[in-house]
Amino acid sequence: MNPVFFQIGGDNWFSWIIWIVFMMVFFLFYPRIMLSQIMWKLERTARELEILSEKSKGIVIKEITKKPNKTVKDSVSRFFEFFMIQPVALDPYGIIKKFDHLIQNQKERFRYFVKQIAPKLNEEKQACIQMGLAGGITVHEIAKIVRHYVELIRKTKSIQIAMILQMQLPLIERIARAMFRGTKALSKGQPIGDGLGPFIIANLIGSKKTREIEEDILMAETKMDGRLVFLLKAKGPGGRIGRPGKAVEKLIRTNKIARIIIIDAAAKLEGEKTGSIAEGVGVALGGPGVERSYIEDMVVKKDIPLDSIIVKMSQEEAIEPMRKVIKDSLPEVKKSIKRSLEKTRRGDKVIITGVGNSSGVGNSKKDVDKLARWVDIYERRLKARQRKKR
To answer: DSSP of 268-310, one letter per residue?
Structure first.
């Protein structure tokens, strides 16, 4: 007699039949039970993301006006459905110009909408609202996509799609919650991790005069180690990114540039230390690549060396309010700049541009000191909340 037979009941045929029926029921219904469990988790997450989306909308509306009427609420809700269709890339020739055209159209739509709905706010506050809208739209889009797949799973009963979505949920939730906190910070004009580049440049500018040489890009001239340095950053303290690529292109056309140094925040790998510095070559500039392309085209024509200095942080830390460890990377970044300048000769002209979002980052050393105090206070409050939770 088979040993397995004795284990499940021996000569007791009734037990044997019950065991077979149990296994049949198990294999028939277990996938449905597992799908129900997964759907419960997915539905809960979808609702949480939709709540975050509504809260994001509420934050933006509150920054527009303390007493919003139905017109304001409906207008913001309608604008949260804004989208941009990417251009055709089957023939790559001219794709940069297509992207540039669409991006400028998108900026203009945001600018026009905020001016229409909040005409009494000053220019800097309107810039913050524009960035807050961009963050809120991203949270809204994440919530809609998750809801789409939840409803698709409910209709098709596909456990494969359910398991794939469930495996992605931890990352999706992390990004959505970080973007929600970023929406709050941008709407209020608070500094975020991605503002590291403008923060460094504002410190280097000190009390020197600045002028706008390109859309939302300020420039100051200074002497560093005997070199004439052009310092570039997005205009603050409103949330702006500007057109750093076009600004660098303009300077290269009118000056004999010996070297370009670009400072930016960069996504770190898990296990790497936030605030650590890395030096390399190339254009450290994110986004769709339009501004990056302008710089690359010019440096190739003029044979100009490119140095990049990055400060590492996670994707969440780049979106959320600036942490103290990021702010404290300033001395090390200055040392990296000094090392890059040593590769040039005295009297050479050098461009140093700080890439990133200028939300909460002013245009002088005085503004930088104010930002540093804000970051220190925020860090203490954040750690106090973390201790309370533990």
So the answer is: PPTTSPTT-EEEEES----SSSHHHHHHHHHHHHHT--EEEEE
**What long-range pairs does 241-244 form, CB within 8 A, spacing at least 24?**
241/216, 241/287, 241/356, 241/357, 241/358, 242/214, 242/215, 242/216, 242/217, 242/358, 243/214, 243/215, 243/216, 243/217, 243/291, 244/214, 244/217, 244/285, 244/291, 244/295, 244/353, 244/355
At 301, list the tokens.
């024509």
Q: Which CATH class is domain 193-389?
A: alpha beta
Q: How many CA atoms lie within 13 A of 84 on its CB side?
A: 19
Query: Of 6-15, 92-101, 231-240, which gets the smallest average pLDDT?
Result: 6-15
How many whole angstroms separate alpha carbon 246 and alpha carbon 355?
Answer: 13
Please report which residue ranges of 121-269 form alpha helices under DSSP H.
123-156, 159-188, 196-205, 244-254
Q: Where does residue 155 fall: left (phi above 0), alpha (psi -120 to 50 degrees), or beta otherwise?
A: alpha
Are the CB atoms for 309 and 356 separated by under 8 Å?
no
Taking alpha carbons only, the member of 323, 296, 297, 326 closest to residue 310 is 326
Q: Provide the whole-model pTM.
A: 0.87
Residue 354's beta-bridge partner residues?
Answer: 233, 263
Work out the number of other CB atoms within 10 angstroms of the CB of residue 79: 18
Tell me the C-alpha distance between 163 and 158, whole Å: 9
Instruction: Give the Cα-Cα-Cα angle 11, 14, 18 (nearest 5 degrees).
Output: 120
Q: Closest by alpha carbon to 326, among 162, 151, 192?
A: 192
Q: Where are the domains of the chain?
A: 27-188, 193-389
Alpha-helical (H) ranges within 11-158 are 13-64, 70-79, 95-117, 123-156
**Cα 90 to Cα 296: distance, rounded to the nearest angstrom:** 22
262: exposed, middle or buried (C-beta count within 10 Å: 0-12, 13-18, 19+)? buried
pLDDT digits (tens, 9 = 90+) for 1-46: 444 444 544 556 777 777 777 777 766 776 777 888 889 999 999 9
Whole-angstrom distance, CA of residue 38 vs CA of residue 58:
30
